[in-house]
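**Paired protein data**
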Amino acid sequence: MENFDVAIIGGGPGGYVAAIRCAQLGMKTALIEKYSSLGGTCLNVGCIPSKALLDSSEHYFNALHTFKEHGIDINTPKVNIKQMIERKRGVVKMTVEGINFLMKKNKIAVFTGHGSFISKNNIEVNKADGTKEQIQAAKTIIATGSKPSSLPGINIDKKRIITSTEALELNEVPKHLIIIGGGVIGLELGSVYGRLGSKVTVVEFMDRIIPSMDGSLSKELQRVLKKNLGFEFLFKHKVTGTKSSAKEVTVSAINGKDENIEIKGDYCLVAVGRKAFTENLGLDKAGVKTDDRGRIVTDDHLKTSAEGIYAIGDVVKGAMLAHKAEEEGVYVAEIIAGQKPHINYNLIPGVVYTWPEVAAVGQTEEQLKEKGIKYKTGSFPFKASGRARASMDTDGFVKVLTDETTDEILGVHMIGPRTADMIAEAVVAMEYRASAEDISRMSHAHPTFTECMKEACLDATGKRALHI
């Protein structure tokens, strides 16, 4: 039985980053991954492949709708869905190979198979060929991620009633895609197929989309998706069941008036969130406790109830985001090494990769009102940006929330072009507890989208925005 200083169960963004940092800190490190390719959900069936399809569909949409305005005349483009999927697979393959290289570079021992605890320090790896192998580790980090959730009455057949995994591998463009859930995953994949010509209907239990984000972002994104892609939104609808045939799917729901309705389409994407993957890990044998939602219980330092065992990413409480898992992976590695790292969970940004993109960090207006914190608001629309007009990306705005007394930035909420990248400025500013005045006095290159951040801060400091 081989001995390691630390073993990580799960090779997703949290797990493989934790392994790299442990190795950098001089620990003999093992990484156990159930599937044959590293990278977890994010690299294989999540973040990376969905962004590849989002980019491909955006190119098609622009060729169809905006090229003529730019003075580019082409024949009417056609969708080659098989090539689009093939390109996506290539992007995934290249990214996974990059992770494999990093494991070898950092001399990390990779074990392929299902890892589970035999005891607190002993882990068994069940391989695909039926063989088993055991390793011993002084410390263990659980990073097994999450899997798609469902609802009572929904039978996911992976053919007509699908999850995000199957939505990334369709061999045809749906005529009518019904999406159960108005969160990030549903809206991103809905955007892919909406751009390619699908009719998209979003069925949401709440009264708005992306309900965890600032209400102004929800409102604007709903408007833009309806205007640009023809999305239909059914709010306050409780899904009661689904049924499918060879070529059709029917979704049954109760609307806000307590009426039973049916929505028919050819595909139904179930996108109602994700749940922690903690089954068959032998947690009881190691003394690791879980909560009523199946998540692993940890303290503020991500230590579980078992000495020497930690948990990170989607298996613990908090946002299910790849970059949150990565931060936690580095954090735990450094804790094990005796360092004193830090994570500010209030400053983990959230992004929706629709177009326009949606990005946010810090407190929402709703949260500030609930807490009774007095605040000021500054905003700036992209339609007033010269760079946005040049690229024909004038939907959206940047909104900055600041403390009424100190002017410290408490939250930044953006919807517009490249806001997924722009939000980093807000994270840096808030990490250093900058005021809106600080940002408003910093030079931003012209013409750029980031000028909207400066203008929103100018607006927050006393309605001093220069270009509105």
About this structure: The two ends are 69 Å apart (CA to CA).
